[in-house]
Amino acid sequence: MVIKLRYVIFLAGIILFTLSCREDKGKDATEKWIDLFNGKDLNGWHPKVKGYPLDENPMNTFKVKNGALVVSYDEYASFDNRFGHIFYKTPYSNYRLRLEYRFVGEQAAGGELWALKNSGIMIHCQSPESMTVEQSFPVSLEVQLLGGYEAGVERPTANLCTPGTHVVINGEQITEHCINSTSETFYDEEWIAAEVLVLNDSLIRHYINGKEVISYSNPIIGGEYNTLEDRAGEALTSGYISLQSESHPIEFRNIRLMEIKE
Question: Are 102 and 189 in contact (CB under 8 A)?
Fold first, then answer.
């Protein structure tokens, strides 16, 4: 009787495990992820660097190396406040965005101290065509990527910065430019998995290595770095995705998106 009972329990475990696997496979099959970056060239991406017109890539700031989209300053004599962004060609409203990133090497000469191991994933961006030649940052929401550079000093990543925008957190409108996440600090050159869930203007969440680290809602145009004064107060419900060049070399890979249908 004991043997039979154990056998029944064993079979039940096998059945539950099999059903679970089938459910997971079915879920994966319905998730339609697309690659925004092909790992070979910058097809579909548009660079915009301060001081230069759209689609000019001065000093090969953005390049592809070993399957990664690389932000490089090898050909810069000095950074000279040439903040840049590379925009994906298509705007989105409801989606999940996944990528991996890592800071590498040394900061470009002339970069600001605050920009050391500092970059970003910009979401809900204004169109690159609407940026002026001398504009440093697009009106957007920034998933700020930071790396630690002093042992024992916390420097969380996937923070929120708000160039030309405001958001709501816990029912309160936030006008601070940057708000820290709850992520741990990463000091080395390891690859880190970042994800962003964007549901129009109703909910946005940042994740690091699968863990939620900050969430917010109701982004609107306004505040510091707003170059769209005639649109102040307007809800940000969609926009472009861009990756930032802010003076420290960084690499991005496995840049994928799943659009969420309303």
Answer: yes
The verdict on 3 and 105 lying in the same domain is: no
Report the distance separating Cα 255 and Cα 100, nearest Å.
Answer: 7
CB 240 within 8 A of CB 125: yes
CATH number at residue 43: 2.60.120.560
Q: Say if residue 22 is in the same domain as residue 91.
A: no
Q: What is the pLDDT of residues 223-258, one digit of tens each?
A: 989 999 999 999 999 999 999 999 999 999 999 999
pTM over 0.90: no
Alpha carbon distances (Å) from 41 to 31, 44, 63, 128, 258: 25, 9, 8, 20, 21
Tell me the C-alpha to C-alpha distance, in Å, between residue 213 and each of 144, 154, 184, 194, 196: 12, 15, 9, 10, 10
Q: Which domain holds residue 78?
A: 35-259
Q: Are residues 22 and 46 in the same domain?
A: no
